[in-house]
Specification:
Structural class: mainly alpha
Shape: elongated
Number of strands: 0
Strand content: under 5%
Helix content: over 70%
Number of domains: 1
Order of helices and strands: HHHH
Length: about 120
Amino acid sequence: MSQLFDRINEGGPVFMVPLVLIIFFIIGLLIYTMVLKKNKERTSRLIGHLSLFGMVWGFLGSSIGLISAFDSIDASGAVSQPMMAGGLKVALLTTVFGLVTFLIGRFSMIILDLKSE
C-alpha cells in the first residue's frame, strides 16, 4: 500500500489523485448498479465517459510532465542517464494510471452489458 502512495506522490498529486478518485467512483457505480439492478444502460454510459476522461487526463499529465522534464534538461545543459530515466518514469506514471482507469471502466461496462442481457 505504501508503494501505491509513493507512486501517486511521484506522479504528481494534481493528476494522480483525480485518477484514483475516478477509479473508486467507477467501482462504486458498478457495485451500486449491480445491487439495485436498474439504470444499467445509463450507468454504463457514465462509466464509459469517466474511463475515457481518466485516460485523457493521464495522457495530459504525462505530456505536461514530459514538457517540464525537457525544460529542466534544456536549462541544465548536461543530463545523466539516471536523471533522464527517473524523469521519464515520473512522466509515464500518469499515463499508466489513466490506462488502468480506462481498463477498469471498460471492464465494468462489459460486466453491466452481460448482466443486462
